[in-house]
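User: I'm putting together notes for a lab meeting next week and I want to include a structural view of one of the chains we've been expressing. I don't have a solved structure, so I'd like a prediction I can at least talk through. The sequence is below, exactly as it appears in our construct file.
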Amino acid sequence: MVVVGVALLAGSGIAASGTGASTQRVTTSDVVDGRFVRAVVLDGGVLTVRPAPASMRTPANRVALSRQIWATSQVRGYRQQVLGFGVVTITTHVASVATVTGVPAWVGFAMNQSVVSCPNEPVGGPAPPLNGGEAAVVVGESGGSPAVVYIARSLRCSQVQPSRLVNATEEISLAWAAAGPRRVNQVSGVTQLAIDVAPPPCQPLSASHLTWHVEAATGRSVTIAVDGLATQDTLQWQACPVTLPLRRWVSIGRAAPTITIRHAPIGAVRLVTRRST
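Assistant: Thanks for the context. Below is the predicted structure for the 277-residue chain, given as structure tokens.
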């Protein structure tokens, strides 16, 4: 289906398909039997989801992929709108993010539900304007790749927030710091080290979402890594409370008390393309 007229929402721009110029947000009626039946456009065509050809069967992995899509870290706190199968093109390109051009994929649309507190807002006054805030999680077929998130531009507190294209749900190596001297378990003889992990901005950490492990060990050194899921980007209008670091004792084996402790490299470790809730 060709989108002849495109009318944008202020800020983001989910457009109606067809020949009319009326504006609409994506609705459940855009998906029938798990398939997009009308074209959906974000930001004037930066992201377009078109109906898949009739000859293309709907994949049978909807349940598994829907769990993955709604568990994506970038849309935590968003309201689920609709999920369907279609053909996706994203015209913008970002280094280290897969190019999406005519990719058959499952797409989940969601709406940002964050509370906005604007500077100089009068106490008890009307809610500040909030336009846009849509996000699309795209998981390609087959094999769940590419897996990307496109967050449309929006207008908040009279400021235009730019669109973003990121990999869906990255696992990252977090910074940690030793929290005191090492100790040796007198029963097992295993050397242990207490380490603190600082939460990323605006995202308290849960120990259940982290992996603490010795990444490499030699006779002279031990490398410790703490991996966790990447959190939603910190946005400039958010006021984040101070959160305390997590502390945990990590066993480094029957190492000599003087062995060198090394920090694993910080940053992206791997993409997670299969994740359950």
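A couple of points you could mention at the meeting. Helices lie at 62-70. The first helix runs from residue 62 to 70.

User: Perfect, that's what I needed.
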